[in-house]
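Q: What would this chain look like folded?
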Amino acid sequence: MRTPVYHAVLGPVIEAIQGLSAVEVWFTSEYPDRIRPLVGTERFLTREQSRWRRYDVYLNADPWAAMRLRRSARRINFFHGVAGKYDLDRPAGLPMGFEYYDRVAFINSDRMQRYLDGGVVTDEQARLIGYPKLDRLATGGIDGAKVRSSLGLDPHRRTALYAPTYSRASSLHVAGEGIIRSLAASGFNVIVKLHDRSLDPDPRYTEGIDWRDRMQRIEDPGRITLVEGADSSPYLAAADVMVTDHSSVGFEYLVTDRPLLIFDAPDLARAARINEDKIVLLRSAAVVVNTPEGLARAAHDELSDPGRLSDARRRVVQEMFHEPGTATDRALSLVQEMLASRVGATQSLPDPAGFQRVSGGIL
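A: My prediction, written as structure tokens:
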């Protein structure tokens, strides 16, 4: 796991695996300080400690940051988003190394077909699983009122969630503080959930802006709160309305069938290399605005008739998420399939990425 969001993506699958008998789960990361607190010191290994241990199955949700294990029998990649950013919907030529995975777990049939048509994965590799991260939200398994209470938010005010993507062309950079202040001034509680990368000290993602400090400066107890939980699902459940620019969590929020607003960041599509079809799709189930003041007015308007775009929201959810609420079961079955097949894994044959396949735990 490179950043905490991958713990949210793989978390439901890991919990299910840990319910199996005689299976041990270990975690590793190139950033130990980020991940060790989430998974526990007793189950965390550094990359150096992991490299030569034997594992039956390796799970990964970030193909750009794969671990080069020397003794892993089987490998599964789980997708971590659906927004179509950074050419993920146009994968030909991207250096993602999918050829080194035994299975690739897809969230929806559209992306799976794109990868099959592009020759990026084979029929044998591709599996339509859905998005385990979304299951609890989709089944109503999160109590939004309890989440709001845990955040100390005023129970007499409606709650807006602001969750922009991390690009330097995102709404956060264009008008983030104005958006938050306008929502709060118009009577909303505001939950601010920034992307992991917006809180990363690497200036490649932030233009050198300390967004944690900037957001903490405008926090207002009971009304505006910055949250940093790895899993955004509780905050989605807690929100009466959501504001984003273009993000996977925007699509995820549609599962709640509540109003979504898009703040138009004019250069975001180019900077984040977003599939235009996905921009059109998300906006078909949302209201698009381009000023903080207009955003606040639109939020109140949508909450006066929250079912207005319900049919559109449901249609987008059906297209973007394969059978939400049941994906974890399919993911667990896939892992069990790989565990059962480990006996036939080729042993001691290095592949071009430096892996060797032998039998042994789960990383």
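The first helix runs from residue 4 to 18.
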